[in-house]
Amino acid sequence: MGIANRVALITGSASGMGKQTAQRMAENGAAVVINDIDAAKVESTVDEFKKLGFRVIGAVADISKGEAVKNMVQQAVEAFGRVDILVNNAGLDKAGPMRKLTESDWDLTLNVNLKGSFLCSQAVHGHMIENKHGRIINIASRAWLGGPGQTPYSSAKAGTVGLTRAMALELGKSGVTSNCIAPGLIHTPMWDALPEKDRNFLLTKQPTGRLGSVDNIADTVMFLADDDAGFINGQVIYVCGGRSLFSG
Questions:
Q1: Given a cut of 60, is residue 248 above it in pLDDT?
Q2: CATH superfamily for domain 7-241
Q3: Whole-angstrom distance, CA of residue 232 vs CA of residue 44
Q4: Is 186 in contact with 208 (CB distance < 8 Å)?
Q5: Claim: this prediction has a pTM higher than 0.85
Q6: Where residue 14 falls among pLDDT bands split at 50, 70, 90?
């Protein structure tokens, strides 16, 4: 059945995996809500999508703040009548040895990656239950299995997996599914920002010897968001070229 005429809210969707996912959904007939904390990036993406004829609005919001999230969801409902699909994509990684990480590094990473996913899910699930249909798709990471120098990030993404499983049990009977995608090495701006030596080292750990693309993630989101995917619930789908087969 696809996602035609559904309403999708994708956090962190003004660039990277989120933007590609939003574009794919819009191309397949969904109305999309573009979210980012950067107003200029939101405006640019919305303008770009409108020129392509997509049904789109922008919502500038810090997803780690409850009131901002409530306002964002209300904005989506006022514009399109409901929210059918939530993709919790926004995230960041404060990496480094434990001895050098600060309390602020921990708080920021957990607030954006985990608390933000909880707040957004909490804000939309009532609308989904009322309509007896919903798809919550959380973007975790292969790093939830553990990774050196990623203590806050791995912890946040492990929490994202736990959040997904708990929501799947709580909301499944209401027609709302919750699933999780765990990307591996994907070519995004976050990857490009890494020092060359770090990129080269990470590629040596990659069974495929290459990066994944934002299209690989968008394809998987589209699969889980489909109206016909209602019996897939509480799962972690790895999109990592086999990187999840070992940790470290």
A1: no
A2: NAD(P)-binding Rossmann-like Domain (3.40.50.720)
A3: 35
A4: no
A5: yes
A6: very high
